[in-house]
Design a protein that fits this description.
Two copies of one chain form a homodimer.
Chain A (H helix, E strand, L loop, with lengths): L1 E5 L5 E2 L5 E2 L2 E8 L9 E5 L25 E2 L4 E2 L4 E5 L31 H15 L6 E5 L1 H12 L6 E5 L7 H15 L17 H15 L2 H7 L21 H16 L2 H13 L10 H6 L2 E7 L7 H13 L4 E6 L13 H18 L2
Parallel strand pairs in A: 5-8, 5-9, 6-7, 9-10, 10-11, 11-12
Antiparallel strand pairs in A: 1-4, 2-3, 4-8
Helix pairs in contact in A: 1-2, 3-4, 3-7, 4-6
């Protein structure tokens, strides 16, 4: 479904000073809101996610991106909870973003789209809640960039939620994190198909740059061990890519990455990649003095979880969040889940991870109904 | 200096079946060969190195790439040793490579240049030794790809050397190592300026792809901690890159990477990047049964050294080399040098590292003169 949440007369004013006269938000919901409206869980997606978090759309065989966690009997149990998942502001799967039409000009925003901030995501998410008639959430849940949004929301409006669940998230990117995103953006913006961000009008698109960005990012989503287990040094036997000998996808891992780059083009937009990755770079909510004071007063219960082999947003990132929240008096539980699968673990059916999320949300529901 | 080491009538036959009718090799030497010819050290450079390992050329302020190790009084002491450093076959700094002119066609080889193997480097290195009148080396020394060449040489012709020094090297790339190189090659080959490898004739060049490749590789040469110490999240204050707000080099680390990408274009060639990185991918000398038998008979003394924060060719890679050599009876000494600076440590003046190399080479000289 899509809702127009901001429009001319009541525009969205952005944290960094810009303004959007129309904001449409695509979202999905799963399960049913209870009569007491006490079972709503808000799911925030990661950098390249979308509103389709669970189940299969008619005619599709691939389920939503968090189908391992969301569904009947699953940790985010849709027989029990009412789950809301919107596509992010700045995204490209139904919510207004830089490749949307600017109503003022009739052409795509491109780089005229205003620079976004994590707080803008929260503003839009809260408006969606009002629109859906939900006043308070049982939990706000997200992984990676999604977990960063959860943190922003928790700090700014802790009264909105009984609990919060931050998985493989960060409160502040490192220089290395920023560096990888910088190279990805460079690949996109220097692709001749980028046309200064107005590629939609040209029929061209920065496909090479976006594929390169995705391939590189994909390496960082997996642990070295995961890649070794999955591919090792296996040759790619069915080589049909027409490349000269020695410079095609000679190894299985090369073929896999190339495929990841290609399929990404069908579902993601280069401008969204720029805007959303930049929001992550700038995110640093604890830099504001007293950032966690309100959360320390309201005291929603918080679960922070990392994965042992995640070298993108690993335990160091989660521990920093935990210590800042603890210092402010927020009740926070922390798990570093053993997993060999790297950052992508947050998407995968790892039993200890699923158990942890299940237990946390069940406890949250018991507490609000106590 | 440049020497023509192979020419029509006595061509270079390559390990993977190709042939080169003319091979010129650029090289530098430092220090003097002793009357007994027992003090020669052969230096193998890394992926993007060249023959200019030490000192400053007239009019230049930047010394050679291993000036921290090579020079009067330095660990590779040019008052004591005679040092030879050639540019690699397939390179682009004076030695024949894929951007050289093919004498058969009068135009650049491009992707018609034959696929290379680590053994080809050794063949050319040995021919250079004959040319220079050096029969036996006191030591063969190299870091990263250079260390991999040392290993190939040690396994194939251990009688050529009294000792070998392998620094931050690998005997077999992991899937993650290959993956990073694969994305780099993809960025180069899919750059419209690549023209199927014949860019020299067009006046165009795959500058964007090569810069992206370098930027990405550069991240992997540094540890996360090195990047954090050097740049943290510092904003780039003097922003003059003309990029739209929010999408330029906003952070210092971005500006640094962009600079690394740009200056690389002046000194390196995209085709060499493809050919040399591919040699690394395929390198797996211990896959051959009995690979280290000859070295176990001849028993040159070997130093293997890694750096604690190197996540490209770290301790695991070195330990594999050590255990394979030990099993074959090669006398091998191993050091994992504490360093926060990542893979690039092998280029840097880290006291414990310099001391280790100095002690090893002094001991090697004492032994041959005993």
């Amino acid at each position: 479904m899509t809702a127009t949440l901001f429009e001319a007369g009541q525009p969205l004013t952005l944290a960094r000073g810009g303004r959007l006269d129309q904001v449409d938000v695509a979202y999905e919901t799963y399960g049913r809101l209870s009569p007491a409206k006490d079972n709503a869980i808000f799911v925030c997606h990661a950098l390249t996610g979308d509103a389709h978090a669970a189940g299969c759309h008619a005619g599709e065989r691939k389920p939503g991106w968090w189908d391992n966690l969301i569904g009947p009997g699953k940790p985010i149990d849709t027989d029990v909870f009412f789950v809301i998942c919107p596509n992010l502001l700045g995204g490209c799967q139904g919510t207004t973003g830089p490749s949307s039409l600017d109503p003022a000009t009739g052409r795509c925003y491109g780089l005229d789209f205003p620079v976004l901030d994590m707080a803008d995501f929260v503003t839009v998410h809260r408006r969606l809640l009002s629109y859906l008639g939900v006043r308070r959430l049982l939990a706000v849940v997200g992984g990676s960039l999604g977990g960063m949004q959860v943190l922003q929301w928790l700090l700014d409006y802790p009264e909105d939620m009984a609990s919060a669940c931050l998985i493989a998230a960060s409160s502040r990117l490192t220089a290395q994190n920023i560096a990888f995103s910088a190279v990805a953006r460079e690949a996109i913006m220097r692709d001749p198909g980028f046309h200064d961000g107005h590629y939609r009008e040209t029929g061209d698109s920065p496909d090479v740059g976006l594929a390169i960005a995705r391939m590189m990012a994909h390496i960082t989503y997996l642990s070295e061990e995961a890649l070794a287990r999955k591919f090792g040094r296996e040759p790619q036997t069915a080589q049909t890519d027409g490349q000269p000998p020695g410079f095609g996808a000679d190894f299985a891992v090369e073929s896999y990455l190339r495929h990841q780059g290609e399929v990404f083009l069908d579902r993601f937009d280069a401008l969204s990649y720029l805007y959303l990755s930049r929001v992550m770079d700038y995110f640093d909510p604890f830099a504001r003095p007293g950032a966690a004071e309100a959360a320390g007063r309201v005291r929603p219960s918080v679960l922070v979880s990392s994965f042992s082999s995640d070298w993108r947003f690993g335990a160091d990132h989660s521990r920093r969040i935990v210590s800042r929240l603890e210092r402010a008096g927020v009740p926070v539980s922390y798990r570093d889940i053993p997993s060999a699968l790297g950052h992508d673990s947050f998407l995968l059916p790892i039993p200890r991870y699923l158990d942890t999320v299940r237990a946390f949300l069940s406890q949250a529901l018991r507490q609000v109904r106590r």
